[in-house]
Write a structure and sequence with these properties.
20% helix, alpha+beta, 9-stranded mixed beta sheet, 9 helices, 29% strand, 5-stranded antiparallel beta sheet
Length: 448
Amino acid sequence: MSRSRSIVLTVVVTLGAAAAIAIAWQPGTSEARRDAAKPTYLADVKPILDGRCAGCHHVGGIAPFSLTTYAGARTHREEIAYAVTHRLMPPWHAKRGVRQYLNDPSLTTAQIETLVRWVKGGAPRGDRVGKRTTLPSVTPKLSRVDLRVQLPQPYTPRGWLPGGDDYHCFDIPWTADTTKYVTGFSAIPGVPTEVHHIIAFLAHPNDAATVDGWDTADPGPGYRCYGGASAVGAETIPVRLLSGWAPGSAGGDFPAGTGIDVQPGSRLILQVHYNLRHAHMTGGPKPDRTALEFALADRVDRLAAMLPVVNFGWIISPPTFSIPAGARQLTHTWTGDPSLAARFFAPDLDLARGLTIEGAILHMHGLGRTARLEVVHADGKREPLLVIPRWDFNWQRAYYLAQPAQLAAGDQLSVSCTHTNTTKRTITWGESSSDEMCIGFVYVAQNG
């Protein structure tokens, strides 16, 4: 849960928690039956919180308070009741009924009722006597950390773009002397309140000297970049997408048996987008030491890659992606051949042999309302990969498919986004937080 969302929830809870809690109680229920039905923290509530909430709500986690103890749960009991009743928590924004995904933390109706009845019943602790059902956590995480890298030096963002944005890339040599396969990824933002997103790119060993030159030419740690991994004003070099982080991301292992290859001598380019719009509230920009963690393997069963799904014309000519002032529910859609993106971002993959789509991501900025990512098969049939009916910038994650989809030669990928512009200016495509985007990503693995 973001810090701003926590504040809003607290205010709303003060006004409406009583109504939210009351749904679990029907008129005419006897006091004896109520007492007998009262859940307790240890027997009924803790398993739910441990399995579905504590992955974020722990000391040092991305949530603003911990729910790993009775004291913490009791203190925030009204927020819990309100959030689960209105299905604000646990966060899950994929449309239900489209397809199934791995690591879905959504609560069942019975689990929601248990939490609400516990709050209404006075939030009793209970005792340890008796059998307690456990609920395994579904929070994605790395099974192991084989490599941890951090910004070589602290970097204090400067907000050189309109709106207080700073795009900065950091050149980190890949030191392994043999080809490795990245099988999992996690990012740890150094200053979460300032980091808008993180993207890890890979530059080929043949371009290592070029990347090192950009770093040397720009004073201080790293170099200015914008819209990609290349330095501002420099000729664009081909890179591959390794993975990324945005608010709400947890990171974790890639689908079993898959991995992205990294050759010896490659350069890991870490692009960090900082937004300093609210930095004045905390005394100004803070030095950042963002870190990345990787799970690695010497070999994998299937070579994988991350492919963007986007109209490159929007990026080249931002006015072609326009959201006029006052526009409501304006939709932009692009459908196209994924081979261009594959040639640039995944040259080792053979589309003629077919690819398996294992995961999907959607990305917009603050004006986003809904988004959709699909495969358009050669016979015209459309297969949805991910539909977000209620966009929330604070919760962006990778959705891995329980039943992967197939991408065959001749198939296309399609992305569609709907925005509402309540500002007094036309918004176009751009990298700043005050601009907008409509882009999807698919994690694909080679067939055969």
